[in-house]
Design a protein that fits this description.
Blueprint: E1 23-30, H1 34-44, H2 49-58, H3 63-82, E2 89-98, E3 102-107, E4 113-118, E5 121-129, H4 132-244
Antiparallel strand pairs: 1-5, 2-5, 3-4
Helix pairs in contact: 2-3
């Protein structure tokens, strides 16, 4: 790879490979081409180590696993050998150099052979401590994110409480309506019972009146029959007296 090995934005001095500009880790003879590795390395150059690790974890390329191992090794070297804080490190430089090319052959038609080039590369990741200004910016962003997350959580809790209170009020209203309906049904049942009792009393009175009228009619008929019988007996007695005379 030609040109500077470090990131221009982070190192204005345009340091070259081999100069002491941070803590590095190297993986040699990785079974991948340098072209494929550089595509992934361009994604993490200049990022802090936490963000770079997240990017590598979500990158859908096989070489990303190897680069992630190299990044972790560089961070471990900085923490254990130089006593730096892992949260203050960022990827100051990362590059891939071509390694040994393994030559293989594939048989083809008419006794010929085709060359197969199995590329390898050397991956280097260099980490260094971020500047104080950048650290302040990152801390401010983290605090703002935590504050916004706390505010969002409070808003979610308040909304949940309001929904629970509304549900409780609706359930209480339903229970009150049910109790009111039961009391109305009880009153209606009592009213129906009273009406039935009045109707039964009226029927009893009507039956008693009918019975009294029927008994009066029977008494009148008996009196008429008795009077007719008396008249007949008197007439018979008179006729008998006349015959005797």
């Amino acid at each position: 790879m030609t040109g500077p090995k470090l990131n221009e934005a982070q190192t204005p001095s345009m340091a070259r490979a081999g100069e002491r500009s941070g803590t590095k880790a190297v993986a040699k003879h990785v079974r991948s081409s340098a072209y494929k590795a550089r595509v992934v390395l361009d994604l993490i150059r200049g990022l802090d180590v936490r963000r770079a690790d997240e990017v590598l974890a979500l990158t859908q390329r096989d070489i990303a696993r190897d680069i992630r191992k190299v990044l972790r090794s560089a961070v471990a070297n900085a923490v254990n050998n130089e006593g730096q804080d892992a949260e203050e490190l960022f990827v100051v430089a990362c590059f891939a150099d071509e390694g040994t090319t393994l030559k293989r052959f594939r048989p083809r038609a008419r006794g010929r052979a085709t060359r197969i080039r199995k590329r390898t590369c050397h991956i280097t990741v260099i980490v260094a401590r971020m500047s104080d200004d950048r650290l302040e910016i990152l801390r401010a962003k983290a605090e703002g994110a935590s504050a916004s997350a706390a505010a969002a959580r409070r808003a979610r809790v308040d909304a949940s409480r309001r929904r629970a209170e509304a549900a409780q009020e609706s359930s209480d209203q339903v229970e009150d309506d049910v109790v009111e309906g039961d009391s109305i049904e009880d009153v209606s049942d009592e009213t129906v019972a009273e009406a039935d009792a009045v109707e039964v009393a009226d029927d009893t009175a009507v039956d008693a009146a009918d019975d009294a009228a029927a008994s009066d009619d029977e008494s009148a008929e008996d009196a008429a029959d008795d009077a007719a019988d008396d008249t007949t007996e008197e007439a018979a007695d008179e006729s008998a007296d006349e015959e005797n005379n």
